[in-house]
Specification:
This protein has about 180 residues and is mainly alpha-helical. It is globular and about 45 Å long. The termini are far apart.
Length: about 180
């Protein structure tokens, strides 16, 4: 199985007609960052973020994608990227996908952190989650044009989201490096 935005989108389509690849990937990353990689925890975490998606129907593929996603998060070269539509798609569609990714991330993170019964999160982690929540609810795809300035703004927000996810993942893993932004 390939690990790219198209394969994530295909898996999402198999799980539910209305589920986007961006939302599925955001939920996987949020669950992993919140500590939901343990056996028996990932399914309820994804259900909390994805609603009525048919998770059980795609379990082997989903487990493989979760494994690949965790490997990307743990990569010492920081190559992790949110799986979103590529640059060829209209900017408004990419902005909507990023908002969906952040929304699913926050929901899955909260469910995983609750289920993992971990210690209190740091102030920095709390601020990052607040920022991701604001991005999820505050991006207006209709307000985005196709000019260079809007594209640059999108790329800066995307990079912030990428670094936030890496830092939230590192916080749950003793000895992991926090990425400066």
């Amino acid at each position: 199985m390939d690990f790219d935005s198209e394969s994530i989108a295909a898996l999402a389509a198999d799980m539910g007609d209305e589920l986007s690849g961006a939302r599925l990937h955001g939920a996987m990353v949020g669950g992993l960052c919140g500590g939901g990689a343990d056996a028996g925890v990932w399914e309820p975490v994804l259900e909390a973020a994805l609603g009525d998606a048919q998770i059980g129907a795609c379990e082997p593929e989903l487990r493989q994608m979760l494994s690949l996603t965790e490997a990307a998060l743990a990569d010492s070269e920081y190559t992790f990227e949110p799986m979103l539509p590529d640059e060829g798609e209209p900017l408004a569609d990419r902005v909507q996908a990023l908002a969906d990714w952040c929304d699913a991330f926050v929901l899955a993170y909260a469910a995983a952190a609750r289920d993992a019964q971990r210690e209190q999160m740091s102030d920095e982690a709390g601020e990052l989650l607040e920022d991701l929540t604001a991005i999820a609810g505050g991006l207006d795809p209709a307000a985005m044009g196709e000019d260079d300035e809007d594209e640059e703004d999108y790329m800066q927000i995307l990079e912030f989201v990428r670094i936030a996810a890496l830092n939230l993942y590192a916080e749950r893993r003793p000895g992991a490096d926090v990425v400066l932004h």
